[in-house]
# Entry
Amino acid sequence: MVQRRRHAAAAVVLLPAAGLLLSGCDRTQNALAPESHSSKDIASLFWWMMGGAWLGLALVVGLLFLAWRRRNQRGIRGDRSGDKPGERLATMVVVGAGIAMPIAVIAAVFVISDLFVIKTTEAPAAGATQLTVQVIGHQWWWEVRYPGTSAVTANELHIPVRTPVRVEVQTADVIHSFWVPELNRTIDTIPGRTNAIELYADAVGRYRGQCDEFCGLEHAKMAFYVYADPPGVFRRWLADQERPAASTTSPLETAGRQVFLSASCASCHTIRGTSARADVGPDLTHLATRQTLAALTIPNDASSLANWIRHSQSVKPGNDMPDILVGGTKLRELVAYLDGLK
Ligand code: CUA
# Structure
C-alpha cells in the first residue's frame, strides 16, 4: 500500500515534468526555437527575464540563509540592543533591493520591450511590402485570402521565405488570436477591426500556428500551417490557387460533383468554377492541395475525408458542419471528386 502510494506520488511529480520536457522538443510549434528576427528578439527577452528572475531568487534565498545563520549565531533570544549600524544596513537592503531595484528592473524591461522588441514584431506598412495576406478567424478555422488575387484557401497559408509579409487579421465571429510561435508574437482578431502583424521566416519550411485565445468548444482544434516557400515555388502555388477548380477526369468524379452540388454541401461551401458559391465553410476549390482537414484536426486522405463528411460532429463536436447522410456509392463518388480538387 505504502509502495503504491509512493509510486503514485512519483507519477504525480514526474509526469508533468516529462510532459514539459517533451513539449519543449516539439520543433513544429516552439516559441523558444525562433526562426525570424522578431521571434529571436522575443526569445532573447524571455531568456534575459528568466535569468534575471533566477538571479533575484538566488539573492532572496541567499539573504534568507544569511538571516537564518545570524539568528542561530546569536541564539533565539539574541541581544539586539544598541545595534544601530545593523538596523541601518537592514533598512538600506529593504529599500534598495525591495523597492528601488524592482522598480528599476521593471522600468528597464518595459522600455526594452516597448522600444525595441515590440517594434521589430510590427507589420510593415501596407504600401511598403510586396505581399499582404488576409486571415479571417472563424469558429473554428482560418480563412486565408490574398488581396489582388482570386486565391482563397483555409488553414494553410503560404508565404515567400525571407520576405516581410503583412498579415491582416479579422474575425467573422468572436475574438481569436493568430499565433505562429516560431515566427512572431500573437495578434488578436477583434470584431469590427483589422489588426496587422509581420510574418517573416528565415528558413524554408512548415511552421505550425494555433489560435491563442479561448474562442469556444473547439478552440484547441483551431490550428494552421504556414509554409515558407522559395519565391518561385510560392509564385507557382499562388497562381495555382487562383485558378478555378480542375475539371473532372473520370465518370466517378463527375458523378461526385453532381452529389456535391445536389446535396447540402453547396449551400455552405464555394468551389470556384461551379455553381457552389456559399461562404459558411472553407473554400474547397483546391481542397486536395491541403495537408489536413478541419484546421489540422485530421489528415486529408480519402478515408478521413469520408469519415469527416459522415461524422463531422464526432470528429469535431459543435462545428458548423452537420453529419451528412450520404453513404455507399454516393459517398465514394463525392470523396473521389473532392480528392481530385488539386
Ligand atoms: Cu479561435 Cu481559439
